[in-house]
From TrEMBL:
<dbReference type="Pfam" id="PF19533">
    <property type="entry name" value="Rab3-GAP_cat_C"/>
</dbReference>
<protein>
    <recommendedName>
        <fullName>Rab3GAP catalytic subunit C-terminal domain-containing protein</fullName>
    </recommendedName>
</protein>
<feature type="domain" description="Rab3GAP catalytic subunit C-terminal">
    <location>
        <begin position="29"/>
        <end position="217"/>
    </location>
</feature>
<dbReference type="InterPro" id="IPR045698">
    <property type="entry name" value="Rab3GAP1_C"/>
</dbReference>
<dbReference type="InterPro" id="IPR045700">
    <property type="entry name" value="Rab3GAP1"/>
</dbReference>
<dbReference type="GO" id="GO:0005096">
    <property type="term" value="F:GTPase activator activity"/>
</dbReference>
Length: 217
């Protein structure tokens, strides 16, 4: 076996191929590398549905790599699934870097990051006086100064208020709408009825308001 001669045969074989044909040969290898990289970065992230999605993507990539014919349509579907999983991983990594840089990850913090990515709303650990809330206010402050082209030397850039103060802080932009949610458990429709949960929400905007209620009995 002459490895030099065999390598020359391979190079000659590739030279005789069109660029499209060479790219098709590399699709399965590149897909395997992408799945391996995704699995490595997604392993420490505790987001509901992410781990099963990665396993599904890996299994699908394995089946496609063993197919005798390269089906680009199925590879495109796999690429979309890869893009979704990579987006989730990137979002969690970005939030972790911004909200808890260099700090040890606690179970509460991991749940908070997962809720930020998957839920419409999340409770901030520590409340308005916690470290996470301070970093969130700092992020809003930096965004506000960038949008208004305010430098750090400007005295107005250092105006802050306590998060529990009734005075609106200049850190946050003006609210486009306000939402009030009332949750209560009470017997309905009669005082002797079973205690059930109820919810009333109101959204106030400049020229309109929206009210929605959910009552059980």
């Amino acid at each position: 076996f002459d490895d030099t001669r065999e390598a020359e045969k391979v190079l000659h074989y590739l030279e005789a191929k069109q660029p499209r044909e060479v790219a098709l040969m590399l699709v399965s290898t590149l897909t395997h590398a992408a799945v391996a990289t995704l699995a490595h970065h997604a392993a420490p992230i505790e987001v509901p549905g992410l781990e099963p999605a990665v396993r599904h993507i890996a299994g699908k990539a394995e089946l496609l790599s063993r197919a005798p014919i390269t089906d680009m349509r199925r590879y495109e579907e796999l690429a979309m699934e890869l893009a979704w999983a990579e987006c989730v991983v990137a979002q969690v990594a970005s939030l972790e870097h911004k909200l808890c840089p260099g700090a040890g990850q606690t179970q509460e913090m991991r749940k908070f990051l997962a809720a930020l990515v998957t839920q419409p709303e999340a409770l901030v650990p520590g409340g308005p006086r916690g470290d996470i809330a301070a970093r969130i206010r700092a992020m809003f402050s930096e965004a506000h100064k960038a949008s208004q082209m305010i430098s750090d030397s400007d005295p107005s850039s250092h105006i802050t208020t306590e998060p529990w103060s009734p005075i609106l802080s200049s850190v946050f932009p003006p609210a486009s709408e306000r939402e009030f949610i009332l949750r209560v458990s009470a017997p309905r429709p009669a005082p002797t009825s079973l205690v059930t949960p109820h919810r009333l929400s109101v959204r106030l905007r400049k020229d309109e308001f929206i009210m929605a209620g959910c009552f059980s009995q």
